[in-house]
Specification:
This protein is mostly beta strands and 254 residues long. 0% of the residues lie in helices and 51% in strands. The strands form six sheets. Strands 10, 11, 13, 14 and 15 form a five-stranded antiparallel sheet that branches. Strands 18, 19, 21, 22 and 23 form a five-stranded antiparallel sheet that branches. A hairpin with a 4-residue loop joins strand 21 and strand 22.
């Protein structure tokens, strides 16, 4: 048999066994695996969410039992800008919704369940550029009770932003000239093809708000999918922003 429990705020890995349903007698429990017991307090081992034990039922009968403390697992950042962080995490059985609690600001972002989806995603907005934030993901049942939570997860927003407004300006049979908006704090840019190969690099151009770069060595009458990324490397900080949206460019005929 498996008993699911929620052990409280901030991943407190302790449980008062006297709170278990029925007339649980801690003196009849032995062979604890995954935790230790002192008095009526069970301390669950780090990195464990299931504890097993033997229980003397009397009359020579012993039951092998489990206690489970559900956990929101695999919280990760999948995309970031200077003001947002997109987080993903694994679904919890029995959860009706989730809350991404920002420990740093005290605000919680709600996330609904998605039928048939095992890994859920949600973007936390309203953040500050280059700032570190700490999050805990809570799972709630249909009555609004917390049934599970993640460990604390820390991540910083981007120092530099995504390149925007990438456009083709003109082309020849072997070159394409593009333009894009300057990114604040960026010291250089790289232009990639859809296979991840760098086609060209570009530095900032004085106070210009729109930058231009010619990509050379291309085949005539051909279409290429490109994207641009901004970089900051000032000798002390090395950061990069998100890729721009993909742009299809085409060279001229010979």
């Amino acid at each position: 048999p498996l008993t699911k429990l929620y052990c409280g705020e901030n991943n407190l890995k302790t449980l008062d066994l006297s709170s278990l349903p029925g007339s649980f007698d801690v003196t009849r429990a032995s062979n604890w695996v995954g935790g230790t017991v002192e008095g009526t307090i069970l301390t669950i081992a780090e990195g464990t969410d299931t504890v097993t034990y033997d229980y003397d039922c009397g009359r020579g009968l012993t039951a092998h039992l489990k206690l489970s403390t559900p956990v929101v697992r695999n919280v990760k950042e999948t995309y970031k800008t200077t003001t947002t962080l997109k987080l993903c995490f694994d679904r919890v059985d029995g959860a009706a919704r989730y809350g991404i609690y920002n420990v740093t600001t005290g605000k919680e972002t709600s996330c609904s369940t998605q039928s048939g989806i095992y890994t859920l995603t949600k973007t936390v907005t309203g953040l500050k550029q280059g700032k570190r934030y700490v999050f805990i993901v809570y799972a709630y049942d249909a009555d609004g009770n917390r049934i599970a939570q993640s460990a604390e997860y820390a991540k910083s927003t981007a120092v530099i932003d995504q390149v925007k407004n990438v456009k083709q300006v003109k082309s020849t049979s072997s070159t394409v000239k593009i333009s894009f908006s300057k990114v604040e704090n960026a010291t250089s840019y790289k232009i990639f093809n859809d296979g991840g190969r760098v086609l060209a690099t570009c530095t900032t151009q004085g106070g210009a708000k729109t930058l231009k770069k010619t990509i050379t060595g291309l085949a005539a009458d051909s279409t290429y999918k490109i994207r641009v990324r901004a970089y900051l490397n000032d000798g002390t900080v090395s950061e990069y922003g998100a890729y721009s949206d993909v742009l299809s460019v085409k060279t001229a005929k010979k």
